[in-house]
Amino acid sequence: MKMTNETGKELSTKYDPKQVEERWYREWKEKGYFNAPVIPKDSKAAAAVKSPKGPFSIVMPPPNVTGSLHLGHAIDNTIQDILTRFRRMQGYDTLWLPGTDHAGIATQAKVEEALAAEGRSKYDLGRDKFVEQVWEWKHNYHGRIVEQLGSLGSSCDWERERFTLDEGCSAAVQEVFATLYEKGLVYQGDYLINWCPKCQTTISDIEVEHEEEEGLLWYLRYPVKDEPGRFITVATTRPETMLGDTAVAVHPADPQYATLIGKTVILPLMNREIPVIADTMVDRAFGTGAVKVTPAHDINDFETGLRHGLEQICVMDNDAKMNDRAGVYEGRDRYEARDMIVKDLENLGLVEKTEGHQHAVGHCYRCGVTVEPMISKQWFVKMKPLAEPTIEAVKDGRIRFVPERFTRIFLSWMENVRDWCISRQLWWGHRIPVWYCQDCGELICSRKEAPQVCPQCGGAALEQDPDVLDTWFSSGLWPFSTMGWPEMSDDLAYYYPTSVLVTGRDIIFFWVARMAFLGLAFMDKQPFHDVMIHGLIMDAQGRKMSKSLGNGIDPIELIDAYGADTLRFTLVTGNTPGNDLRFQRERLEGTRNFCNKIWNACRFALMNLAEADETATAEDQANPSELADRWIRSRYSRCAIDVTKALEEYDIGVAAGRIYEFLWDELCDWYIELIKPRLYGRTTEADQSAARHTLTEMLRGTLSLLHPFMPFLTEELWQHLPHEGESLMLSPWEEGDERLIHPEAEETMALIMDVVKAARNLRSQFSIPPGKQANLILYAADSRAARMLQAGLGYIALLAAADQVEIGTAEAEKPRQAASAVVTGAEIYLPLEGLIDREAEKKRLAKESDKVTKEIHALETKLANEGFRSKAPAEVIAKEEEKLADARYRLQALEAIKEKIE
User: What is the 3 state secondary structure string of 528-584?
Assistant: First the structure.
């Protein structure tokens, strides 16, 4: 194997990400390492260029062009990059397709805010000029997002980058809308929608965020017509909507209202006659068991109204102010009108009582304003015919959720899905491809250019629908529109369906569901095989990060301070798929230390490297003569096998943790210490070369495993070590070699390591200085353990700072005046004679015991205090209890040491 390295370039004493990351990303990108191969549709031509492994493809969840990336984007793209780099190194034809989303409501709101700061509005510009202004915004912020994704190390194919409003994606949107319209799956109708008074648009059901709020429940008395003094009392949380009531409903099986069903009551303040109807939707346990019915302002009332043919009276305008149907309250804000209405009803003696009531209130997910259910003419997608094939695809395993528990959540939503309102009252977005003839009223849907004449009457006065489509409509086509659909491009033929979708649990219904049913409907194949769900990034207190709480963290600031590799590794360790992650800055420090540990290990190897070290044969590698070499190769092979398996199962955190344990604990803390005498001592050149060669191989292999997680650091170090090829990111993945697994070497080293740790612990307990040599006596549990200990005598003496190590049998008489410990397979004795000043040590231990005893007393007193327990948070009490348990353990250990000395 021809090896090259950059040994002429000396590694600095400390790793500095700023000197490495930008340089390597630029080189990778310029050399086209991120670019996926184009595989022709023609099978013969494809066979000559495609990988025998086949394709691996991911489409990036497109970030909105509204500003900067947040930590949610950071973890999402880190996971995608890990999977992409892993599969690329395994030899797959790898496509990670990037792009951005036009984000209708969010982006328009940003631009309108900027205009408002200048004292202007979108109406001052007009629709066309305003849209031009938004495009300028998009160009300004798009570049920043791409730069941020690059800073994170995203190895996506920038030559295939897409935007949801680009020409190709827009053509796909029109084709899908027109096709659904022609099939009767898109329709226009009056329906109760969720209206945001601030954003001035409708939003879908899943864009409404419900929050529990403490409110009031008013009990209002409606007079029964022609029966003076008789009332029916209804309970409501929204007195302001009573002005639009068109009935009072009771349950048909409720005996208390049996004589009122079919009668008429007088709507207070409006003096309008409305019927008392019977409907099973009434919850008899709520309030009085009688409810007001306002079809224009409540979804349940809307459906009740349809069943009973009730009038729909809307009493608010688009600003959530009372309209001309609200009588004397016209022009009042909804909450101001509420107060006025309650006061007027009280004056009439029609408020029976008021009580506190906790209930869920819907808010706009973008601006947080309380949404208003309103009757409106909108465009809808019929969901049931589209949902059924999607449910089948999930149930038969064509679409698989990781973790599996999200399957049930997804299916529950799909099985109860309502029709999807897709029209939005905005100017920025895909304008609905429907025109209305002003002469005859004909509706014309066009999949390409705007029609010039009406096909019905020949008139030329055509006006396009002013609304745009829901952002999620175009995002739902992302897996196939980005690859050239409706044309069957080479990319679409080869890379669709995609391999996996990586996304957060918060957009399963917003996005995953839409991609699933639209992909099945238009490609006749699921858009992805696997859906890997990750949790949300929370702050250290477990709260969702938000602007209002001021707890958001800019990932670019963290990259500037710690480096991208440190951030990436921190985000994916200590977490499992689907679970939320509490972000703590202290963990970044730990990861930075890990980076420096790797850096220093490679510096150590390079300082000891010789040209002849790469001449070892395959036989030398498979059967090294030295126990430590056999052990570390065995442990590395297990690590590589475990990491590969974990990545294939999307267990990213487990894979990262496995590499960390091997590199830090086994390679750096044990193996490097074990080979130092071989490198510096009086050993043969062959033995020195074997140690150097094994260390270099293990470091190079571990850098390969670590590369998907820490691409910059690993590339820099790999280039300095002897290597084959241009770049680590293009080198073959280290699968692990089962032939190199030596169970006997592992078992022997496990016993040796246990003995060393026990000996070190005894030295620490008795405060024996590190430089002071001591004798060790080991008693093996059986002959096999004795052989293993004999094989590791040199290692034990070296790492336990032992002047002499003896091995005896379990039956032999044990030494007196010695500290001892027991591990599986052996007993360890450390003779104390001459190592410690017994009297001085007794005094020190007595003093330490007194100190710990006082600590225990103080903690017991504190925890016995009822005042403390009743006021302190549970986590504070738990922490104090942990302190007490630890103090008791330390006192017990001190007493045991005193007994040994005495």
Answer: EEEEEEECCEECCCCCECCCCCCCCCCHHHHHHHHCHHHHHHHHHCCCCCCCCEECC
Return the closest-CA partner of residue 779 out of 755, 747, 746: 755
In the predicted model, is pLDDT for residue 616 greater than 60? no
Q: Judge contact between 386 and 474, C-beta under 8 A.
A: no
Residue 802, strand partner residues: 774
Q: What percent of the chain has pLDDT over 90?
A: 63
For residue 866, what are the CA distances in angstroms to 427, 856, 875?
Answer: 62, 18, 16
Helix 711-720 crosses helix 685-706 at what angle (to 10 degrees)? 150
- Long-range contacts, stretch 392-397, CB < 8 angstroms, 24+ apart: 393/516, 393/520, 393/526, 394/516
- Strand-pairing partners, residue 469, are 423
CA distance 662 to 642: 11
- Please state, rounded to an integer, the average pLDDT across all residues of the chain: 90
The torsion angles phi and psi of 778, rounded to 5 degrees, stand at -110, 135
Per-residue pLDDT, 622: 55
At residue 187, the 3 state secondary structure works out as: strand
Q: Which two structure tokens, joined as six digits, stand for 228?
A: 């003076």
CA–CA distance, 207 with 211 (Å, rounded to integer): 13
Contact status, residue 231 vs residue 224, Cβ threshold 8 Å: yes
Two tokens at 245?
């009531």
Tokens of 386: 């589209």
As a residue count, the chain comes to: 902
Within 54-165, residue ranges assigned H as helices are 71-90, 104-117, 122-125, 127-152
DSSP type of residue 814? P
Q: Vertex 377, ends 373 and 272: CA angle to 5°?
A: 60
Determine the distance from the C-alpha atom of residue 328 to the mean position of all C-alpha atoms in its chain, rounded to a whole number. 51
| Whole-number pLDDT of residue 553 | 84
Q: Per the structure block, which two tokens stand in for 636?
A: 């590395």
403-406 contact pairs (CB < 8 A, 24+): 403/533, 403/576, 403/577, 403/578, 405/578, 406/505, 406/508, 406/531, 406/533, 406/578
- Tens of pLDDT, residues 208-221: 888 888 889 999 99
Pairing of strands 55-59, 93-97: parallel
Torsion, CA 479, CA 484, CA 490, CA 493, rounded to 10 = 40
Cα distance between residue 600 and residue 604, in whole Å: 6
pLDDT digits (tens, 9 = 90+) for 397-436: 999 999 999 999 899 989 988 899 899 989 999 999 999 9
Rounded to the nearest 10°, the torsion over CA 227, 229, 233, 237 is 120
Report how far residue 801's alpha carbon sits from residue 772's, in angstroms, rounded to the nearest whole number.
7
400-402 and 818-823 strand pairing = unpaired
Residue 728: DSSP 8-state: G
Task: Give the neighbor-by-neighbor strand order of the sheet with 201-203.
Answer: 201-203, 186-196, 372-381, 420-421
In 612-717, DSSP assigns E strands to none
Quick one: 709 exposed, middle or buried, by C-beta within 10 A (0-12, 13-18, 19+)? buried
- pLDDT tens-place string over residues 384-395: 999 999 999 999
3-state SS, 403-446, equals CCHHHHHHHHHHHCCCCEECEECCCCCCECCEEEECCCCCEEEC
The C-alpha atoms of residue 615 and residue 613 are separated, in whole angstroms, by 6
Dihedral sign for Cα 137, 139, 144, 145, please: positive
600 burial type by CB count under 10 A (0-12 exposed, 13-18 middle, 19+ buried): middle
- Give pairs for 607-610: CB < 8 Å, separation 24+: 608/679, 608/692, 608/695, 609/7, 609/692, 609/696, 609/722, 610/689, 610/692
DSSP string, 341-373: HHHHHHHTT-EEEEEEEEEEEEEETTT-PBPEE
